[in-house]
Predict the structure.
Amino acid sequence: MAVIQEYKCPCCDGAIEFNSELQKMKCPYCDTEFDVETLISYDKELKNEPKEKMEWDSNVGGEWSEGEEDGLRVYVCNSCGGEIVGDETTAATSCPFCGNPVVMMGQLSGSLKPDCVIPFKLDKKAAVEALKKHYKGKWLLPKAFKDENHIDEIKGVYVPFWLFDADADANIRYKATRITMWSDSNYRYTRTSFYSVTRAGEIGFDLIPVDGSSKIDDKLMESIEPFNFNEAVDFQTAYLAGYLADKYDVDAEESVSRANERIKRSTEEAFASTVVGYNSVLPVSTGIELKNGKKKYALYPVWLLNTSWNGQKYMFAMNGQTGKLAGDLPMDKGAFARWFMGIATAVSAAAFGISYLVHIL
């Protein structure tokens, strides 16, 4: 049985065919024409594009030395299953993730010792002030939330992070467009030209953070980045005094996919910034091979603030090193409706004015 070679249009990915009148390949979807030799050469390039190879060394973290765990205790939340590490002086407490009581289960064991820790620089008072500042200027925030919302609990928690270092060899193909517009006395014309742009090179990544806790929203943790790793120190249990430490439940191997996603996205954006002179640039094919991949296990300082209002709970997180705070806020639906109606009215008035002027002219 003969095998029929099918070519995809570089512009719209539609199947293209040979046009006998033009003696060229022509896409029936976007009407773009190609020389046969050019298309064959392009197809060969696509087949030879490098594939992704994003692998990491499995060694990470360290072992606890004899007696180092003696002063640490594990607290388990019966509601969300969170495991929290504290010292032996920690009183009965509540879960910083869901607010329910936690139960002390015993001495810490069976987990990796962190390689490093960034100590807390900001205290509880700074976290409260950051939350108040976060409310300011949010005119869609219900006034009652500001007046009646109260902080149920504030906890200083060392959140487990896996840190990834790697060098990436990348070969990325982008689909770019260039738009030209002109008009005459009868019509307005728009011509969109499509281009295939390739970028290749090497880019290095240091300390890409991926939190190792499933109980904290990943986007919330990313929102309070960056942390300044220059202030990190070798881990000592003394830094846990007065604070809690979340025990990781997402290990390094499970975190690799998120690290790879961040590397891929950052590489595509960095290389795309070198593609200039186009109206749009979108990645089509990305081939990345990682080299010198390394991982570290670190604890980063985070203040978790649990608040409640109108029967709902709201969690905010503040970077315990820089003071950057993030968290979701409720919206005043009435204020939003008034804002939306105001925008709609303004747009309608502008459209009427333009229509009126055109009619007069």
About this structure: Helices lie at 36-47, 124-135, 143-148, 218-223, 252-272, 333-360.
